[in-house]
Amino acid sequence: MHDLTAIVADITEEMQAAPDRGRPADYIPALARADVSQFGMAIVTADGSVHTGGSADEPFSLQSVTKVFALTQALGRVGDQLWDRVGREPSGSAFNSIVQLESEQGIPRNPFINAGAIVVSDVNLARGAPRAALAELVNFVRYLADDDTIAVDTEVAASELETGFRNVALANYMKSFGNLRRSPEEVLDLYFGQCAIAMSCRQLAMAGRYLMAAGLNPTNGHRVVSEARARRINALMLTCGHYDASGDFAFRVGLPGKSGVGGGILAVAPGRASISVWSPGLNAQGNSQLGTLALERLATRTGWSVFARGAVADS
Ligand code: GLN
Asked: What separation in Å is there between the alpha carbon of 259 and the centre of ligand 1?
């Protein structure tokens, strides 16, 4: 067995001292103030042990990491019909890009870019009110994390509502193609609220456990999704979870992962661990600079890459 306590301590020490820390997202004013000296990390293993380092209990804005939980909810609602309205291919474009939507008739490439997540919000809205749909998502992540204190940071949601002009454009553009059922305003109300959910690394690693546990919630053994669905969500995270840096993330880390502009990343080592890292400084593609590096170090030390002979490395 790996000495995860020592590995997490080593990685945390290295990240806390790292000189090149990236820059916080500045297009959302409430995120621009984030302190790039912060670093946190949490690992929850299949046998339930928890290993944390740095600011692992500090809540941060989850942003696009929530796209994983919203997708899970939408698949539960409409199943494979979702794929009539959202693709499953990496976009190779920035997370907030609009370019492919014109030639692809308003069908976003995948559920993890903003356009795709906005369609997912439309599905999760169904016929209800945005506030009710957001409460449902918050309840879902509380259930997954086994933690009722998880909440939405309303200041971040309001900040994004004021400045989210690109997302407004994406929603209106897709509406013009008939790919939103509800109004862009209602859909974005849910989408911005969803992005503003705050969690700590510990809570996020707990919430991601079903993806390493073949779809089961380890707290109570209940099934969250089928094993096949967990596998497919992991596949989408691997191929699309880091936008136009998804290939680079697979190359460096080799685990399904989903990033957010708050600087968090959820990564899954299937059968082994649910991992989360947070550091608010981002690289050019909007992914956490040190979060990515920390996961690269972890994959190297543990051999947990999905492309490696993991079982051997584990012994
Ligand atoms: N709320 C952010 C946005 O829509 C999420 C983007 C992200 O985390 N990559 O711009």
From this structure: 10
Pocket lined around ligand 1, Cβ cut-off 6 Å: 63-64, 95-96, 114, 160, 167, 195, 260-261, 286
- Give pLDDT tens digits for 81-121: 999 999 999 999 999 999 999 999 999 999 999 999 999 99
Q: Which of 244, 246, 123 is nearest to 194 (CA)?
A: 123
Task: Report how far ligand 1's centroid is from the alpha carbon of 201 (Å).
Answer: 18
Tell if the pTM clears 0.90, that is, is over it: yes
Rg of the Cα atoms in the chain:
18
Give me the number of domains the chain comprises.
2
Last residue of a domain, one of 166, 197, 228: 197
Enter the DSSP assignment of 111: T
CATH code for position 281: 3.40.710.10
Domain hosting residue 103, numbered range: 64-197
